[in-house]
Specification:
alpha+beta, OB fold (Dihydrolipoamide Acetyltransferase, E2P), rod-shaped, 31% helix, five-stranded mixed beta barrel, 2 helices
């Protein structure tokens, strides 16, 4: 009986040792063809992005969130041009330059006051106002979801 238990324990240990690499890989790596395809696709995209960066083309942003502060220089019916003073990583390449930001019917406009932000309209904005903006960036199109003017941190 002792020999059977010893043999059983050895078989279980050998099975665990043989299965350890497969268990360590985790459940996500079972479809190797799919993973190889994803990895090849990611490598190709990485090469394209690296090439764009090398030749000075702007990077696509694919719907990422941007934030910026600056001074409004042109106010149109569907866009606002801003002289960028600061921003997140998507905006860093535009600091010190003018950037056209698209506005839509869903863009929210606010004016900062010490008591809190109050709603305003596009018509209330003026050239020279300091602004804080947030929205989405896709390719080279920046679309504002929120525009807040007269924020103290943005005033020169």
């Amino acid at each position: 009986m002792k020999k059977r238990w010893t043999l059983l324990i050895l078989v279980v240990l050998a099975t665990l040792i043989a299965a350890a690499p497969a268990l360590a890989a985790g459940p996500g790596n079972q479809n190797q063809k799919g993973n190889q395809y994803q990895q090849a696709n990611q490598n190709q995209q990485g090469s394209q992005n690296q090439h764009r960066h090398q030749v000075g083309e702007p990077q696509p942003h694919n719907g990422q969130i941007f934030t910026l502060t600056g001074t409004m220089t042109v106010i149109g019916t569907d866009s606002i041009t801003v002289l960028v003073r600061n921003g997140n990583r998507l905006i860093k390449p535009y600091i010190g330059q003018e950037l056209v930001v698209q506005v839509t019917e869903s863009t929210r406009y606010r004016r900062w006051t010490p008591e809190g932000c109050v709603p305003i309209t596009l018509e209330d904005l003026e050239v020279g106002d300091t602004a804080s903006m947030e929205g989405t960036a896709s390719e080279e199109v920046f679309s504002a979801a929120r525009v807040t003017v007269d924020v103290p941190c943005c005033t020169p």
